[in-house]
Write a sequence for this structure.
């Protein structure tokens, strides 16, 4: 270790304790295994599934722009309307290390590997940054390690890799280049970062932020820093190389994305007071997928620190302690008012670009910004003093409260949280139960299409089914219109919010119903019945839909030409599944009017239970 990073004995003790606590953080996920709960929203329902799907379809390392993944949003072989599926370029690049981890390991194992890596990188990066640039004196060892540990607890989404937690490490490397300390390790960090982060979510905004930092420094010093510029050029170039398929598709519009119909006027209030509320909320509670935690404590410490700095006439420190919260506020304003810009640009070419690619995602920088501010604010108090210890303890409590998924898994370990409340990974994807469905249908899964009701289609997709419905951030626009025909009557009966959610957004092309609303997580301990389902069965069949996999019973199945084939239950599964077959016009098998199976069997026999 270079001399500048020499550690004292107390610091080694603090580091040992921090690493031990991080291992305790990971422990529930290891102990519970697939019995652990993983966040469903924007994770198991989408991004997690996409990473596994690349392995399932053997397209992880397919770089052909014409490759299409047919497992979702593709029409069946006998469909009247032909849709091929989702372009491979809409998914994560095969050059990403997270894609590689899912390819080499089982999906849950890959998640745990990335969990350790993401939080470990966060701790290491913030520790190095604080130790060298924020709290460099040896008597700040406790704060260095503690703040780094607290940053490592930011509950960001693991499927984004190091997009959030890797920022301090990347900033550390670039600050070294800014100070003309071009050690090989700095270049290694820069080279690896684009391959373990995501350009769309954070990469572009990190490059912009680093560019502004370099510009200000070079204007201040009145000289060019070629090492820094070379590092920024290398980072940008490697992002372009790693995400070239996605970027090429965006620039050249290889297909018209459904995102061109995003209507922010319907999705968000256009009143200034509501935009200000969004600004305030994001300032006090960062976006959920970047790692949401209450920032009031850090903000209060920053205010107290600024007051202390002004009292001591330390105007340089006061400038940072006031400037960084203002920068955070600016980032929040950009996000809250972004839709005004999109609406103003309208249907122009530039306006379409601003709809398809959200240029307001600077909020991915907020967790790093807040914790750097926290470290700077602590400098205004006595190192190892009671105030510093109190601030660190309070922030620790804040981070534990923010880690909902971790708290749920601790609850599962202690028996205080049940599967009915929060399904485990195993229960959510229900592989044994869906194997029964697959065997019951008895045909190659590529030969037919299913649609899900009352559950996320990712469950069926994970188990190899080809679904008409899906949660996709980017897919061809014509499919949105074709799918809408299936649910048009239900959207008309539903709330204005439900209609807007599809017509102005439609990333979730789901089988919405007015009775269930925007809820798609009905477990077997819940007992809703659909009594007035009204779908366009002809439109469903036009896309090749043959089966409905439903988490709720459909009382008027016959009116929608749906025939109940069988019911599947499983002790390990979160779901109870009703399997309906879509019937052509005029075909009425025995029992269809009552919604019962054609087999003349008692319910106890046609309900299939798997241990």
């Amino acid at each position: 270790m270079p001399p500048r990073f020499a550690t004292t004995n107390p610091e080694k003790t603090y580091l040992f304790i921090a690493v031990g606590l991080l291992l305790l953080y990971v422990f529930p996920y290891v102990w519970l295994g697939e019995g652990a709960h993983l966040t469903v929203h924007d994770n198991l329902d989408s991004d997690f599934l996409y990473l596994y799907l690349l392995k399932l379809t053997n397209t992880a390392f397919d770089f052909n722009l014409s490759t299409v993944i047919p497992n979702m949003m593709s029409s069946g072989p006998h469909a009247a309307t032909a849709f091929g599926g989702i372009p491979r370029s809409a998914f994560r690049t095969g050059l990403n290390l997270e894609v590689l981890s899912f390819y080499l390991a089982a999906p849950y194992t890959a998640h745990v590997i990335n969990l350790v890596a993401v939080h470990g990188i966060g701790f290491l990066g913030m520790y190095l940054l604080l130790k060298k640039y924020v709290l460099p004196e040896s008597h700040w060892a406790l704060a260095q390690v503690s703040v780094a540990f607290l940053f490592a607890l930011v509950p960001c989404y693991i499927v984004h890799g190091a997009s959030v937690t890797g920022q301090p490490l990347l900033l550390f490397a670039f600050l070294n280049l800014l100070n003309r300390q071009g050690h090989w390790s700095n270049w290694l960090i820069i080279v690896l970062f684009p391959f373990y982060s995501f350009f769309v979510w954070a990469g572009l905004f990190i490059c912009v932020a680093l560019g502004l930092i370099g510009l200000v420094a070079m204007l201040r010093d009145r000289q060019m820093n070629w090492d820094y510029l070379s590092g920024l050029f290398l980072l940008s170039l490697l992002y372009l190389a790693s995400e070239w398929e996605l970027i090429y598709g965006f620039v050249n519009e290889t297909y018209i994305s459904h995102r061109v119909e995003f209507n922010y006027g319907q999705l968000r209030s256009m009143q200034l007071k509501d935009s200000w509320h969004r600004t305030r909320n994001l300032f006090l509670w960062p976006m959920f997928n970047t790692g949401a935690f209450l920032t009031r404590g850090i903000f209060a410490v920053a205010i107290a620190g600024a007051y202390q700095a002004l009292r001591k006439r330390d105007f340089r420190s006061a400038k940072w302690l006031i400037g960084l919260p203002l920068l955070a506020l600016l980032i929040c304003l950009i996000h809250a008012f972004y839709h005004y810009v999109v609406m103003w640009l309208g249907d122009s070419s530039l306006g379409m670009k601003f709809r398809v690619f959200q240029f307001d995602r600077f909020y991915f920088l907020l967790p790093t910004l807040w914790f750097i501010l926290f470290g700077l604010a602590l400098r205004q108090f006595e190192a190892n003093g009671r105030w510093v210890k109190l601030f660190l303890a309070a922030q620790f409590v804040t981070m534990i409260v923010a880690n909902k998924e971790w708290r749920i898994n601790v609850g599962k370990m202690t028996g205080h949280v049940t599967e009915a409340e929060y399904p485990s990974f195993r229960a959510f994807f229900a592989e044994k139960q869906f194997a029964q469905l697959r065997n019951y249908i008895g045909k190659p899964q590529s030969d037919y299409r299913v649609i899900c009701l009352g559950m996320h289609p990712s469950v069926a997709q994970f188990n190899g089914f080809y679904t008409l419905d899906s949660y996709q951030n980017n897919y061809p626009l014509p499919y949105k219109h074709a799918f809408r025909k299936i649910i048009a009557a239900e959207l008309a009966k539903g709330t204005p919010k439900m209609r807007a959610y599809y017509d102005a957004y439609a990333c979730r092309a789901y089988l919405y119903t007015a009775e269930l609303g925007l809820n798609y997580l009905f477990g077997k301990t819940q007992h809703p019945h659909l009594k007035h389902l009204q779908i366009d069965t002809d439109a469903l069949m036009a896309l090749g839909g043959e089966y409905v996999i439903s988490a709720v019973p459909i009382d008027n199945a016959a009116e929608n030409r749906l025939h109940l084939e069988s019911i599947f239950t499983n002790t390990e599964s979160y779901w109870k599944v009703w399997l309906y077959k879509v019937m052509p016009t005029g075909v009425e098998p025995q029992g269809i009017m009552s919604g019962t199976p054609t087999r003349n069997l008692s319910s106890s026999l046609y309900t299939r239970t798997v241990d």
